[in-house]
Amino acid sequence: MAKQNRQTVSYLTRRFREVGLNPNARHGQNFLIDLNLIELLAKSAKLTPDDVVLEIGTGTGSLTALLAADAARVITVEIDGHLYQMAREELEQFDNVTMLRQDALKNKNRFDARLLESVNHWMKEVDGGVFKLAANLPYNVATPIISNLLRCEIIPTTMTVTIQKELADRILAKPNSKDYGALSVWIQSLCDVELIRVMPPSVFWPRPKVESAILQIEYRPDKHAQIPDTEFFHQFVRSMFFHRRKFLRSVATAAFKNQLTKPEVDQVLSEMNLGPDARTEQLTVEKIQQMCELFRAQVGQSG
Ligand code: SAH
Prior knowledge:
Blueprint (H helix, E strand, L loop, with lengths): L8 H10 L12 E2 L2 H10 L6 E6 L5 H9 L2 E6 L2 H10 L6 E5 L3 E3 L2 E2 L1 H13 L4 E7 L5 H8 L8 E7 H8 L9 H9 E9 L4 E2 L6 E8 L1 H4 L5 H11 L7 H8 L6 H10 L13 H18 L1
Parallel strand pairs: 2-3, 2-7, 3-4, 7-8
Antiparallel strand pairs: 1-10, 5-6, 8-11, 9-11
The protein binds S-adenosyl-L-homocysteine.
């Protein structure tokens, strides 16, 4: 294991001491120290030599090295300059790793343009390239990263990620549960989701306060094709779950207040066979999609 980066607590504490660093909680710096789990994450991504893999949060580069061994290209993004330097040394031996030192996000709703340019560039460069995400995501930005990737021009065929268990629960949630919300509907509408492993805080250094999970999100273009207007649907789902305590009727009336009259809203609800006391959280993903299309048609007519 000469040059291989063995990410253990002693390795990390030594490296951090050498450069006079402390892990920065603001940037969600929790490093995976269980080597079996780093391997499980990499293995679950099922990489092939055609893959162009995006990793957000290089850290010290331990996962990056595993990904680079199997993929055509790894694009890895790190916000912290010190970690970027540390990882550069660790990853020197790989000629298929593109390292970006920057914030992956421009804002909550958008990726940084340089990151997207790099993905586009390597997808053109790699013949038959398949885009994937594999990362131990910074927890403070895990939701916008996953959600925004589903709105990009090139959507990853799979996202294999370590996230907070609580976020995994929300992504996987079914109707009539407290976790079921806009994120569950949005992701399940476009993807299949599989929980690979629940992990205790002790597999990270420093320990986070909460449990984590490895999740595999597989993009399903055939599901996506059922949604004629993705942006409208995205907005619709967000607004339908905006006031969880309210009845669907008043939520929808508020959401379309400049576009639809109350009778027009009621007409959609009656076509859906929904009574005045229906709530969005009771509806399956399919029902919400169906309702979205009825509202879209109404808005089209009255506009
Ligand atoms: N992949 C490593 C590190 C995970 S910790 C491992 O498994 O051990 C999350 C990493 O994401 C940290 O290195 C942190 O500095 C970085 N990070 C946090 N916010 C970021 C952002 N907005 N853009 C890019 N990197 C970010």
